[in-house]
């Protein structure tokens, strides 16, 4: 404002500037208010949705504890429809698959788990669903399909699940009577440092027989 000679000139220029810009300034203020208000509304909506999903999942767990499979499946379906993008919906799907297993409907359980493997964005949840699916493939004699699922896993994303995959690979090979490959798989599981005592038991159970020179027709 130093370029103007008098205060009157400065005031006059301010008036002109305001007349030229007041509409855009007011619009900017209103836009900012709407953005802040909209963000708060969205945040509150998200919080409410998470709260509702959590409550539905708690109800599902209570139904599962009572072995009420009909209620478990109904609540799992509701979570899938109303809160499908949440982790609660994915955990509910796993519970629904277990309910189907308890009902001896293994094909339905496999279909649910297959959908989770294909559609869930969270890698850890994918691994959990895939491992359970492989267990069902083992139970239903789909050994080659189970091995293909394991072979398709990206090792970089499965570091925390490596022992489980190796152990299940061993189980599949045992079922196929391919014991050398089963031993290798169990040994790989143990080398990860994540294997349970059960893995060692499985390995010991199929340990190679001691070398018998007589059987090989060699001098003793």
From TrEMBL:
Q: Where in the cell is it found?
A: Cell membrane
Membrane topology qualifier: Single-pass type II membrane protein
What are the UniProt keywords, alphabetically? Answer: Cell membrane, Chaperone, Membrane, Transmembrane, Transmembrane helix
Q: What does UniProt give as GO cellular component?
A: plasma membrane
Which InterPro entries does the protein's record reference?
Answer: SecYEG/CpoB_TPR (IPR018704), TPR-like_helical_dom_sf (IPR011990), YfgM (IPR026039)
Would the keyword Transmembrane be found if you checked this record's keyword annotation? yes
Name of the protein in its database record: Ancillary SecYEG translocon subunit
| Lineage of the organism | Bacteria, Pseudomonadati, Pseudomonadota, Gammaproteobacteria, Methylococcales
